[in-house]
Design goal:
The chain is α/β, with parallel strands linked by helices and 286 residues long. It has helices spanning 18-27, 67-80, 100-111, 176-182, 194-204, 240-258, 270-284, and strands at 8-14, 38-43, 57-60, 85-90, 94-95, 115-117, 151-154, 160-164, 171-175, 214-217, 224-225. Strand 7 (151-154) and strand 8 form a beta hairpin. The chain is globular. The two termini are 21 Å apart.
Length: 286
C-alpha cells in the first residue's frame, strides 16, 4: 500500500442477505483508492446471480458451514496472501469513513493491541431504555443508540481506545502475528461463542485486554454503523430453537476448553486493566 510496507486484507462473511452485502460493498473503500490489498467474500448461502465482483473474489461454500468456519476460510485465505492486517466483516455492517482501516492499524501500532472488535456492534454495549435484558429478549434492544464504554484510555492526542463489557464479532481486526500465534476459530462452535473463545485465547497471549474489557478504537461509530433491523434479520438466530441449541452447545464447548462458562470468566479491576495495557504496549510495539 503506497510507501507502507504492509498488506491489508478484508474478508466479508455473508449468507442469504444480498441487499446487506450490496450495501456493504458500496461503502467499502476500493483497491484503486489504495485502501485494500486483498478482498475475499465467503458466501455461506445461495450463490449470487447478479453481483459485479470485479473487485476482489467470492468463494461459495458448497454447503452451509456456519459463521466461525466461514471466518476461518477468510482469515486463512488472507494469511496465504501475505496480509499483515486482517479485517473480518459480517454483511450487516456499513462503513462510514474510508479511513477506517488506517484508523485501526494506527491504533494497533501505537497501543500494541493485536485484536479489536467493533464494540457498538452489539446492543449490549449501547445505552438502553429498558434495564432487564439478556440473549432471550435482545431483539427488543436498540442497536443504534449511544455507545456505552466502561472506560476510555488516551495514549496520545490522536489515539484513544474504548473498552466495553461485551464482545461483538460483526467487525474484527487482527494482526498476522496474533493469528499465527493463536490460530483461527475453534471449529467445534456453530454460530455461537466462536468469536468470544477466539478473543479469550488472544487475551491469554497478552494481545488484548482482560475479559469483560473488550477493546475498540475510540468513537468507532464515526467509522461504522449497523442497520437497525440487523438483529431481526439475522440468519443465525432467526430460528430461535436452532439458535438456542447452538448457544447451549457452544457454552459446553467453551467450558470444556476453559473450565467455566463464558459468563463466569473472572473479572479484572480497572487498575489491573491499565497495567495490562501497559504490558501489551511493551510487548508488541517496537
Amino acid at each position: 500500500m503506497g510507501d507502507e510496507k504492509y498488506k491489508v486484507g478484508v474478508g466479508i462473511i455473508t449468507c442469504n442477505r444480498p441487499d446487506y452485502l450490496r450495501n456493504l460493498l458500496n461503502t467499502l473503500p476500493k483497491e484503486h483508492e489504495n485502501k485494500i490489498d486483498h478482498l475475499v467474500i465467503i458466501n455461506d448461502g445461495t450463490p449470487f446471480t447478479d453481483f459485479d465482483l470485479s473487485f476482489g473474489e467470492c468463494v461459495d461454500n458448497e454447503v452451509n458451514i456456519g459463521v466461525g468456519k466461514s471466518k476461518n476460510k477468510a482469515m486463512q485465505h488472507l494469511l496465504d496472501q501475505g496480509c499483515d492486517y486482517i479485517f473480518i466483516i459480517e454483511d450487516d455492517t456499513l462503513i462510514k469513513d474510508k479511513d477506517i482501516f488506517e484508523a485501526y492499524i494506527k491504533a494497533s501500532k501505537i497501543t500494541g493491541i493485536q485484536h479489536f472488535n467493533f464494540g457498538p456492534g452489539t446492543p449490549f454495549n449501547r445505552r438502553q431504555s429498558i434495564s432487564n435484558y439478556d440473549l432471550h429478549n435482545r431483539h427488543l434492544l436498540d442497536n443504534t443508540s449511544t455507545p456505552n464504554p466502561k472506560l476510555t484510555i488516551e495514549y496520545n492526542s490522536d489515539i484513544k481506545v474504548d473498552l466495553y463489557e461485551h464482545v461483538a464479532g460483526v467487525f474484527s481486526f487482527f494482526t498476522k502475528k496474533i493469528l499465527q500465534q493463536v490460530g483461527l476459530n475453534d471449529q467445534r462452535y456453530k454460530n455461537a461463542w466462536e468469536h468470544v473463545d477466539h478473543t479469550y485465547r488472544i487475551i491469554k497471549e497478552n494481545g488484548h485486554p482482560p475479559f469483560w474489557w473488550f477493546v475498540d478504537i475510540h468513537d468507532s461509530v464515526k467509522y461504522l454503523s449497523i442497520p437497525s433491523d440487523s438483529i431481526d434479520r439475522s440468519i443465525t438466530s432467526n430460528n430461535q430453537e436452532e439458535w438456542f441449541k447452538n448457544i447451549n452447545a457452544g457454552r459446553e464447548v467453551y467450558r470444556d476448553i476453559h473450565g467455566f462458562y463464558p459468563n463466569m470468566c473472572p473479572h479484572t479491576s480497572k487498575e489491573d486493566v491499565i497495567k495490562n495495557l501497559k504490558n501489551i504496549k511493551s510487548k508488541w510495539t517496537i
